[in-house]
Amino acid sequence: AKALGRGNYQFYCEEMNARTLDRLTLESGLRHAVERGELQLMYQPQIDLASGKMIGAEALLRWQPNGQRLVMPDAFIAIAEETGLIVSIGEWVLRTACSQQVAWHRAELADVRVAVNLSARQFRQHGLDAMVARVLADTGCPASYLELEITETVLMERPDSAAQTLQRLSDMGVQLAIDDFGTGYSSLSYLKRFPIHALKIDRSFVCDIPADTDDAAIAGAVIALAHSMGLTVVAEGVETVQQRDFLRELRCDLAQGYYFSEPISATSLANKFIHGEIQK
Ligand code: C2E
Ligand code: CA
Ligand code: CA
Ligand code: CA
Asked: What is the pLDDT of residue 1?
């Protein structure tokens, strides 16, 4: 038993080392990702369920280190958060997405809003509103064409200061959405205090509808609640025609998911417009 124990211990150490090394490699690579031009944004269309038209796109970050495999955000956003690199990366994301909004508008491809994710650290960063204002001014993106997505969990951790930050952004004319709605513990009274424009129903409530009657009931309740408060509802992770039809019956406003399109490059999205695969 002792030998086995030691063996296990060794194995554990090796695994730890591998993971630490991995993390250090990621961290040092990430430090230069912006300046080396290794980051890119993909865009996932947001479709108006009543008209079938695209009204916006969510920007989703990808990292392509030189000569290596594409790294998805779940593998590096947390490290970017812990190291503080998210602040410069986040500014790059915002700037790139706002420039893209202006480019689509100029090319008369689409008059669409762009949605950008904000992490916890970015949201709490002093001067966030000034940074957003600067990027909007530099790029020429109208504030009302930018939507910032903040998760429910981040808002609920410090609801009072969150409400103040949201108010400053809202005063600038920026649209605000609560991301992953339903996964945290928002109370309705807090929701009322936040100057938000949209709720995004988390994918976990969408994937098993309409068959799962509990999830169907939750989706229906969230949509009714949001509408009673004058909010727009976006369903995430819509993959099937059945899900789309069911959400449309529930009067859900917008949807995004693989059924409509995976996140794709700005060029691919432009081509989809030109070929009429996505309606504007
Ligand atoms: P999220 O904001 O909830 O984004 C939705 C995720 O669901 C994206 O994963 C998207 O590709 C994926 N998705 C979209 N449609 C479907 C579908 O129909 N089925 C399934 N199974 N998945 C779908 P992605 O791009 O890997 O991003 C993961 C998370 O990383 C995001 O979750 C967001 O929290 C974070 N993230 C992405 N880009 C950024 C960024 O620029 N800044 C920050 N702070 N976080 C980001
Ligand atoms: Ca999001
Ligand atoms: Ca989400
Ligand atoms: Ca999520």
From this structure: 40
* Ranges in the chain, pLDDT < 50: 1-3, 5-6
Q: Would you say the ipTM is above 0.95?
A: yes
Distance of CA 217 from the midpoint of ligand 1 (Å): 24
DSSP of the chain? -HHHHHHHHHHHHHHHHHHHHHHHHHHHHHHTTTTTT-EEEEEEEEEETTT-BEEEEEEEEEE--TTS--B-GGGTHHHHHHHSTHHHHHHHHHHHHHHHHHHHHHTTS---EEEEE--HHHHHSTTHHHHHHHHHHHHT--GGGEEEEEEHHHHHHSHHHHHHHHHHHHHTT-EEEEEEETSS---HHHHHHS---EEEE-HHHHTTTTT-HHHHHHHHHHHHHHHHTT-EEEE----SHHHHHHHHHTT--EE-STTT---B-HHHHHHHHHTTSSB-
| Closest protein CA for atom 11 of ligand 1 | 263
Pocket test for ligand 1, best of 38, 58, 60, 72 (most atoms within 8 A of CB): 60
Q: Is 96 in the pocket of ligand 1 (CB under 6 A)?
A: no
